[in-house]
Amino acid sequence: MGTRHPVPTHSRHGNAPALRVTTPGTDGALIVRLAGEIDVTQCRTLELHLVKAFSSRPEQLVVDLSHVTFCDTAGLNSLLRVHRAARAADSRLVLARPSQPVRSLLEITGMCQVFTVSPVLRTAVSTETAAPGELGVSP
């Protein structure tokens, strides 16, 4: 059963929560589903949730980005720090189903060559997930 961690801050576009984090468990992988905006105001909270997810020592941490409506470079840097933490913990970070705004950011910055990115959640959770840059994030 997943755990929902609402973030108390609000988005730049009204009173909706800026970021929601849920963590359903699966065999060998931990899936973290993000929804809302990932910007400079959410980075610390995001990193805390994702680094905390490593405390259960998953083989891989899959971050589902399909419901992320906005991500700036601060958010991308947070994901990069978590990627490095995963490697230090002998784990792997996989970005799954990036939304169009996230996909565009990954392409523009070239970070799709750094992160392992999967357009399909089921593929991301499998042990056969490709290495960084192999799946790409082409539209």
Automatic annotation (TrEMBL):
UniProt-annotated stretches for the region Disordered: 1-20
InterPro entries: Anti-sigma_ant (IPR003658), STAS_dom (IPR002645), STAS_dom_sf (IPR036513)
Entry's family note: Belongs to the anti-sigma-factor antagonist family.
Superkingdom of the organism of origin: Bacteria
Cross-referenced SUPFAM superfamilies: SpoIIaa-like
CDD domains associated with the record: STAS_anti-anti-sigma_factors
Ranges where the STAS domain occurs: 19-128
Name of the featured protein: Anti-sigma factor antagonist
Coiled-coil regions listed: none
